[in-house]
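Translate structure to sequence.
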């Protein structure tokens, strides 16, 4: 397999590009920085969408859709927001063969347009909280694109909410952070994330607090997998999102926003992939069990179809590969590349002995199993391997994370992994110094690992790393 993919240890970025191409996950689009997500990659994204969407709805948010084009004046009304996004904006100045009276921006995020409509829809405290989510594409002109990680156009969900009080807004931003984002990443994607508070330097433009889920990739770098923001009353004041209180006064609402994107696909590849290709956690996998006919004849096709049906009846997402006109070795390599959690190989020789061969992608094990026991063996493997992938990723993160006492030690440690250092030993000046050497403060934690409310809390721990 090393001849199919560049080994990770030899050239991690090349391995990543090789895997995306050979597993047929995505391709570069015709405009620089854009991507085409192929069916194999999009199937994984659809599973991420479904799992995330269910969690968002469980938190009370409803899906809506807002326009791709946003009047430039909307962004200018929230000065800090437009300043944060200015270099990334794509601006349309002509339409229908004529110059537009006002340029329109292709949405980099939808705070401003959703803020405009929140102001229209909210009148009384009885209209709060207003909890909205949108599945959409956004455009941020990317100078150094990399498929799934940084592209000029990408897919995501963006949630936007308005609340009567700061406490309610903070509680909801935290609820999404933990119950939607952290839960999905840990329990479905199998990525053990560190959840913390961004520093003022790193937080979202226009936010008063940004919370983040950070995952360690297979090369020791960090990847921001999702963020949830408290926006205070900044957008509410800019767009007059106000309501009549129960006491009869007029108050500005407190708002939040939060988002995850196709970047999670890149994180999945880099966290779990190996030199043989992708490894997809069973709970996420579009195909959990891949039944393969090694060689047809002698009842093999019928036996394989029965196994497929039995697995489907047991609730397993299953596919049958009966392409015997293609060499079995090539098909097996493709299955490894795609990361199907379990393969069930059915051939004349094993079938004559009453067996099929069960191959587990996570550890590469291969064992003959009586045909009558295949369903049970597959179900057990799926459950065990979901946990195994998480545990392997956690063990790797722990092995590449060191606790240090100074900024210099933290910057040195970030060459190979993550460093935990007292925030008081870094501070605003130290953070700027680290940034100058390609190292960022990924997040701040309390000593017990919980998420702080402010970077001014005493005894905070900073996590420093190089990042994508």
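Result:
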């Amino acid at each position: 397999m090393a001849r199919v993919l560049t080994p990770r240890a030899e050239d991690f970025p090349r391995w990543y590009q090789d895997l995306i191409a050979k597993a047929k996950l995505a391709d570069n689009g015709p405009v620089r920085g854009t991507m085409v997500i192929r069916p194999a990659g999009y199937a994984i994204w659809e599973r991420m969408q479904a799992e995330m969407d269910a969690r968002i709805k469980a938190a009370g948010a409803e899906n809506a859709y807002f326009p791709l084009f946003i009047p430039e004046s909307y962004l200018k009304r929230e000065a800090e927001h437009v300043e944060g996004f200015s270099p990334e904006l794509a601006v349309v100045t002509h339409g229908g063969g004529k110059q537009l009276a006002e340029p329109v921006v292709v949405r980099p995020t939808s705070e401003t347009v959703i803020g405009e409509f929140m102001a229209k829809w909210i009148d009384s405290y009885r209209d709060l909280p207003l909890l909205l989510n949108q599945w959409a594409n956004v455009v941020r002109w990317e100078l150094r694109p990399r498929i799934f990680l940084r592209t000029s156009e990408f897919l995501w969900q963006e949630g936007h909410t308005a609340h009567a009080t700061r406490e309610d807004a903070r509680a909801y931003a935290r609820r999404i952070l933990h119950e939607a984002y952290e839960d999905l990443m840990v329990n479905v994607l199998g990525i053990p994330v560190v959840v913390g508070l961004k520093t003022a330097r790193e937080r979202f433009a226009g936010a008063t607090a940004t919370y983040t889920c950070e995952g360690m990739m297979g090369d020791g770098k960090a990847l921001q997998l999702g963020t949830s923001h408290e926006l205070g009353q900044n957008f509410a004041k800019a767009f007059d999102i106000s309501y009549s209180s129960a006491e009869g006064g007029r108050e500005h609402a407190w708002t939040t926003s939060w988002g995850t994107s196709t970047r999670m696909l890149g994180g999945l590849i880099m966290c779990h992939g190996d030199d043989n290709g992708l490894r997809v956690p069973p709970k996420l996998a579009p195909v959990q069990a891949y039944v393969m006919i090694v060689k047809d004849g002698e009842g093999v096709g019928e036996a394989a179809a029965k196994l497929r049906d039995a697995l489907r009846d047991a609730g397993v997402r299953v596919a049958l590969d009966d392409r015997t006109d293609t060499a079995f070795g090539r098909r097996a390599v493709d299955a490894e590349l795609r990361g199907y959690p379990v393969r069930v190989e059915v051939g004349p020789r094993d079938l004559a002995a009453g067996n099929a061969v069960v191959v587990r992608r996570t550890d590469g094990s291969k064992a003959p199993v009586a045909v009558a026991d295949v369903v049970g063996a597959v179900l057990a493997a799926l459950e065990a391997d979901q946990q195994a992938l998480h545990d392997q990723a956690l063990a790797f993160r722990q092995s590449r994370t060191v606790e240090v006492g100074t900024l210099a030690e933290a910057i040195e440690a970030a060459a190979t992994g993550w460093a935990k250092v007292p925030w008081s030993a870094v501070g605003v000046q130290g953070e700027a110094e680290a940034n100058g050497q390609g190292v960022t403060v990924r997040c701040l934690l309390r000593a017990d690992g919980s998420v702080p409310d402010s970077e001014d809390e005493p005894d905070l721990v900073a996590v420093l790393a190089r990042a994508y």
